[in-house]
Amino acid sequence: MRPQVTYTVNMTEEPTQEVLDAILEKAKSFTTVENMEKIARKVRWNLRVSKVHLRINTDGDRDIEHEYYTWYYRTADATDTSPENIDAYQTWYKEGE
Q: Quick one: which H or E segment has residue 17?
């Protein structure tokens, strides 16, 4: 399995859409190729971080109410390093959409 990074935000109530958008923007601004490479080096992963998750729990239980994710590669083929297959964490998706 390829290395993945997960950001988890725990809240005590359902946030407004503006707050959700602000959290996602912070995650996007931190999720750069450079930062993911630093994380991978620190934990001695010999592979690139493949996927980054942002999970937001709004009520303290184990269920995640809001989840977003991004990939380094556009396809499952990590051996394809062509520019067409590199998204470099630019495209974010909302889980379930």
A: helix 17-30
pLDDT tens digits along 41-64? 999 998 899 999 999 999 988 899
Kind plus residue range of the DSSP H or E element containing 7: strand 4-10
How far from the centroid of its chain's Cα atoms is residue 89's Cα?
8
DSSP code at position 49 = -
Q: How far apart are the first and last CA of the chain?
A: 24
Instruction: Give CA–CA dist 81/77, Å, rounded.
Output: 9
C-alpha span between 6 and 51 (Å, rounded): 8
Give the pTM.
0.91
Residues linked to residue 7 through DSSP beta bridges, in sequence order: 54
Is residue 89 within 8 Å of residue 44, measured between CB atoms? no
Pairing of strands 51-57, 66-71: antiparallel
Is-contact 15 58, C-beta < 8 A?
A: yes
Phi, psi of 51 (to 5 degrees): -140, 145
